[in-house]
Amino acid sequence: MAIEQGNNLNSGKKPLTEGFPVPYQNNLKTEEPNKDRVGAGIILEAEMEKRDKLRADKNESGEAKKQEELVTKLLKDYNNGNYSEILALTNEKEENEENEKSDKKIYKVYGEDDIPELEQKEEIKTTRKKTKATLAGIENEEKEGLERKFDVQKTIEEINKTVEEQEKVENIEFTPEQKQAIATEMFLKAKEDSNDKTIESSGRLKRALTKTGEWWKEVDKKTAGKAAGKALLLSGVTIGLGAILGINTSNFAITALKMGGRGLTAAGLNMAVTSNLINKFLPKKEKNPDEKKNWLKKEINLSNVASVAGIGFSALLSGGLAVPLIGVGGYAFRRILNGVFLGTMAVYHHNAEIETKGKQDIEFEKQQKETKLKEEMERQVKLKQQQEQKHLEELKAKIEEEIKLKDATVHKGEGVEHAFIRQIENNQELAKELGFKGDPSDTKVLHEFAGREAHIIAIKEGYADNTGNEVRVAEADKIAYEIKIEDGHILVEEKTVGGEILETHHEGDKFEEKVDKYESSYTKSNEIDNVPEIKEDINSPVEPNINKQIISEYEDTPENETRTEYEDTSKPEGEENIISQESINNPYHLSEEVLRKVNEVYQNNIESISPENPEVFKHIQLTAEETIKQHLDTVNQTYKPVISYIQALEKITDIHPRSTTIFQSPETNIEYMTHVLQIEASKGILLKATVDTNGITYIEKVKL
Amino acid sequence: MNTNKQTNKNEIRKNIMLNEKDLAEYEKMMDNHVDADILLDFFFEKVPNFLQIVVEESENFRKESAEVLEQTN
């Protein structure tokens, strides 16, 4: 309508404000005021207000129509300058109203003097209109903003979509923990964005919220010291999440500051909403306001007082919808979310634990079975090994015992001392225990030692005596004489070849006057202290003269006695000659030919020295060592060739007779003669003896 | 039942909207950085069922969080 785009008050030169027929103030101040026009304008304004109200109420009654027609007419009159028509109408109406209602509005009729009052009135009306319009807009904006709903489902869809896309990009499958972490962060971000929009559209509340933020910062300075540390911890979650999502999180400080800032801002709020206070807040029975207030103040400390205050403000301003404005995305709601997160994860963990536990149980049982089986197998293997080891040891012991028995068994043509010698030679430990200190691999030395020890043992154990008596076996290969040492003492066990012990001889036992049934007693025809048993197949060149007795200071002629209880199949007696055991055992491993030549030289020397009485050597009771010390001037002429022979042997070969020790007996003249001849023969030399007219024997070395 | 309860709740929340005078007072407190205690007194005075609102809003967020996490697997 034309009137609403401009009116006569401003003569069409200036636009009307807000389309409202307000007189232009400058015109009012410069032009001549028209009392009728002003009065008509006021009336017109009042009618237009009435019309507008009916329009706003959407009143379609006859009254509204009538009012529309009236305003149209008044505007027409006003624009045509028919002020009096308008004034008349008003006067008529006022009269009617006065008649009808005494409280009806009475419009004042202004004069020129009332212009300032009119101007003020117009300004007030204009301001009121503008304020109304503004408030309506703000209210609408607030309502729109605060009623904005956070779309949970949309957020969930976006989160799931992001997770799927990220899994494809990373070509991995996130763990439930990782998915939940992503969901947590994205949810907070979505919540934060949503609330940013809410704040922006919160109209008059925006300024209050901004100021609240400033207030929070001040509170944080006083109360959030502890929370700052926690916020930094949470920033770690963000960093980890960023790593998963490929977000650049290298700048830890920025991330931490961001999180820390949030945390500081919402620290107090967090403590209030995440603590047990929440549960305490839930009133189980109604309390009066004062009780609640006092109770709350008592329960919470400074920091969460601030938190509750923050929440309270949000609720106060927005009716609850803006509660997260302060805390969301920050520490407080993050902790709430974490609480939910942890609760959710607890289910995952529980299920995972059950599954894991089940697998672990199965695996454990499997391992247990395998372990038991393995242990059983190892036990059986070990047992088998032990049995085999035991068997081997028993077998070894049996073999060793059999070897010992074999060594200890007297064979055909042997005496007990043969068995003793074999045992000492084949058992190094026994040899050492008996005093052998040489090299066991030196068979020559070992054999010499064994021969001497065998004889000593035979005497000590009662198998021989100094009168030439000795024990022999009744049957070859049936009886063994095993040497043993117990507690440092030598003993001899007489056993069957099956190992059965028949008798035990100890040191100091007297020579058996009455031999056992498996033995025979033998007495040499000549009284000498060592009577070597003679090997059956040795061809002795010397015929023993058992009937000849020579009495001198060196001689001792025992009574001959031979007593045989059982049949003796061993070497027949009377075949022994004056060669020593060494020539039989061949300790220097001379060849048969050399050994034969040595024996020939040996016999020839004896015959040269004492052609008429070869047995003279046997009658000398001196040891070789003692013989060498004799002075030829003082000895009997009969024995001078013999004694000088022994002394010549030592002188020419520098081989000394064996001395007497604890473990060995002294060397006899015969032993020494044999000993020296064989040693020299082993060097390729034969020692031939010749006797001069004075009865002194000389030695000549002859090469083999 | 729930609908009625929710409606009542919303009605309560609508009624606690600050008027211009209260909002101005609040902003003045913010500008002066008043202690939280004083602010709390203010809320208790101006907001009916203040504690109930705090608890409800916290629980709402908790439930919302749970819903999101449960459905994002």
From TrEMBL, chain A:
Coiled-coil zones: 359-412
Transmembrane segments: 231-257, 263-282, 302-333
Bias (Basic and acidic residues): 560-574
UniProt entry tagged with the keyword Transmembrane helix: yes
Annotated region (Disordered), positions in chain: 1-37, 552-574
Record's keyword terms, sorted: Coiled coil, Membrane, Transmembrane, Transmembrane helix
Keyword Cell inner membrane: no
Bias type Polar residues, positions: 1-11
Protein name (database record): Uncharacterized protein
Source organism of the structure: Candidatus Nomurabacteria bacterium GW2011_GWA2_35_80
From TrEMBL, chain B:
Domain of life: Bacteria
Entry protein name: Uncharacterized protein
